[in-house]
Amino acid sequence: PARAHAAPLQYAITPTYSRPVQKAELTRLANTLRQVARLHWILVEDAAARSELVSRFVAAAGLPCTHLHVPTPRRYKRPGLPRATEQRNAGLAWLRQRHQHLPPPQPGVLFFADDDNTYSLELFHEMRTTRKVSVWPVGLVGGRRYERPVVENGKVVGWYTGWRADRPFAVDMAGFAVSLQVILSHPKAVFKRRGSQPGMQESDFLKQITTVEELEPKANNCTKVLVWHTRTEKVNLANEPKYHLDTVNIEV
After folding, report:
1. For residues 43 and 65, is the Cβ–Cβ distance under 8 A?
2. Right CATH number for 9-228 from 3.90.550.10, 3.40.50.620, 3.20.20.10, 3.40.50.300?
3. What is the pLDDT of residue 103?
4. Where in or outside the cell (predicted)?
5. In this predicted model, what pLDDT tens digit does every residue of 27-86 receive, in sequence order?
6. Can you give the pLDDT at residue 5?
7. Is the pTM of this model over 0.90?
8. CB neighbours of residue 95 within 10 Å
9. Active site residue: 147, 202, 233, 240, which one?
10. Position with higher pLDDT, 51 vs 197
11. Alpha-carbon distance 180 to 199, whole Å?
12. Cα 125 to the chain's mean position, in Å?
């Protein structure tokens, strides 16, 4: 039997989609996650089937990984609509299915690790002690150097943000973690497709499972930036040939 004081398993749900930088982004993220003890990566492709590129990548990544896929319906692929909803929900469904027949308590912590973020390893230590929902600052997001929950006497009392400060939870997807127990005890909590605007998905999800008063501030009372929304610059492929291609087929 597992020791009671064994560190809880950490689950990272990462939506991903095919684009020139996909493998580079996944490589960078995997290099971080590989250094975290007791971590399970749930990688969810936006595709009708698993791609060969991602399948090969997962096989060689050297860390516990579940590779899922679910396509975003075409009608939701317009600009101005939230992204990766189906993929995050597929990750949640897999987690619930995996754990539904196991007896409680089931220690575990879930967070949403988009493939364009950069993580300090310190963040994984911080989020391991999440009891319900924990929060922390995120760098380079919302048109600011950072956004963060404002903390007084160990409680979140507001949000330092440059974008829609009226949001119930003005937090980025990279700025919170949820205990597995909370995910399992709220089986209907998912990311909403209808009626959700970009940037409101986090709020719409969190208000199904917690309140602002219950949030647990991490990262030195939300004064340290341990994750950055870095985003890769758009790749210039202007010199990519249409004809006279290379004699070998190389995966990038």
Report:
1. yes
2. 3.90.550.10
3. 78
4. Endomembrane system; Golgi apparatus membrane
5. 999 999 999 999 999 999 999 999 999 999 999 999 999 999 999 998 888 887 888 999
6. 56
7. yes
8. 20
9. 202
10. 51
11. 24
12. 16
Domain ranges of the chain: 9-228
User: What residues form the annotated binding site for Mn(2+)?
Assistant: 116
Give percent of the chain above pLDDT 90: 80
The residues facing 13 across adjacent strands are 42, 112
Integer Cα distance of 70 and 84 in angstroms: 10
* Amino acid identity for residue 81 in this structure: L
Enter the tokens of residue 59.
């096989």
* Known binding positions for UDP-alpha-D-glucuronate: 15-17, 46, 83, 88, 114-116, 229-231
Tell me the mean pLDDT in the region 106-111: 93
Query: Can 214 be counted among the known catalytic residues?
Result: no
* Binding residue ranges: 15-17, 46, 83, 88, 114-116, 229-231
Q: What is the 3-state secondary structure (H, E, C) of the chain?
A: CCCCCCCCEEEEEEEECCCCCHHHHHHHHHHHHCCCCCEEEEEEECCCCCCHHHHHHHHHHCCCEEEEECCCCHHHCCCCCCCCHHHHHHHHHHHHHHHCCCCCCCCEEEEECCCCCEECHHHHHHHCCCCCEEECCEEEECCEEEEEEEEECCEEEEEECCCCCCCCCCCCHHHEEEEHHHHHHCCCCCCCCCCCCCCCHHHHHHCCCCCHHHCEECHHHHCCCCEECCCCCCCCCCCCCCCCCCCCCCCC
